[in-house]
Amino acid sequence: MTVQTRYRQGLAALLLAAACAAAHAGPLPVVDAGMGEQVIAIPARIAGADITLQTTIYKPPGDGPFPVLFMNHGKDGGEAHQQPRARYLVISREFVKRGYAVVIPMRKGFADSGGTYVNSHCQARENGEDQASSLYFAMAYVMKQPWADQQHVIIAGQSHGGLTAIAAGSHNISGVQGVINFAGGVNSRSHCDWQAALVDAFKAYGAVSTTPSIWFYGANDKHFGPKLAAEMYAAYTGAGGKAQLVAYGPFKRDAHGMSSSADGVAIWLPETMRFLQGVGMPTEIKYTIKDKR
């Protein structure tokens, strides 16, 4: 049995377990400052343990169904449970304005989610798959909700969440039209060649993925610089993966956080809108947001 087959069988089991546990005339409707923000606990069973995943959801007004963006967070330094709940207000605002629901699950061991984060940075491919396990439970839960459009889904992530998104996208999940990778990867201060492990991981993902993706890496990213980003991209596309690399220049002091900055919207939004159009996802602005909180 190949590694890819084991991954696909594991994914099927996870999803089964989770299932069981036009232009507008006049002014655009307004979304309140909180963008309908909710924080819920999604049940999950991971590695034999029953836990809940702290999950933030933003939705436009109305009943939907809405296209869905699943946004995956990175990892701060230190204890994962001390990491605050991710909100990604800049990204979420742009998608809610366009009629999307945005779902941001905190993965196992992070913030107020249950379980323990496992540091396996030197096994980058396995690490990405392990992180994606939490995402699958969030996806299974959300896709059962009447407000979610099951056929118009995007998976995105930043840093460690970018690796998670690429790993999940490699399983070619029904309804997932594309993947957005903001500076994705995982690094380690351990005595191992984590860069080579990361390149190998992207190669493995690219060999089985048919889901289109767009990648953003900046020239002064302190974690994953231009050389490593180019190597990951070459490995992924060389193995057959579909990806567009946006290798933009330096951004402030560290391009790694570009996607969370209001100043970064000018970099990622135009390219992302073109990408979304190309994969049949909506891009038209449908709502205004009251403020920038």
Tell me about this structure.
InterPro entries: AB_hydrolase_fold, FrsA_esterase, Xaa-Pro-like_dom. Keywords: Hydrolase, Signal. One of its GO terms (molecular function) is carboxylic ester hydrolase activity. Residues 1-25 form the signal peptide. The protein has two domains: 1-20 and 36-59 and 94-121 and 134-147, no CATH class; 151-281, Alpha/Beta hydrolase fold, catalytic domain (Rossmann fold). With 293 residues, the chain is an alpha/beta fold. The protein is built from seven helices and ten strands.
Oligomer: single chain
Number of spatially distinct domains: 2
> Which strand order spans the largest sheet, edge to edge or round the barrel?
2-3-5-4-6-7-8-9
Helix content: 25-40%
InterPro entries: AB_hydrolase_fold (IPR029058), FrsA_esterase (IPR050261), Xaa-Pro-like_dom (IPR000383)
Pfam families: Peptidase_S15
Protein name: Prolyl oligopeptidase family serine peptidase
Keywords: Hydrolase, Signal
Summary, kept brief:
One of its GO terms (molecular function) is carboxylic ester hydrolase activity. This protein is of the alpha/beta class. It has helices at residues 3-20, 89-97, 124-142, 160-169, 194-208, 226-238, 265-278; strands at 30-31, 38-46, 49-58, 66-72, 101-105, 148-158, 176-182, 213-218, 243-248, 288-289.
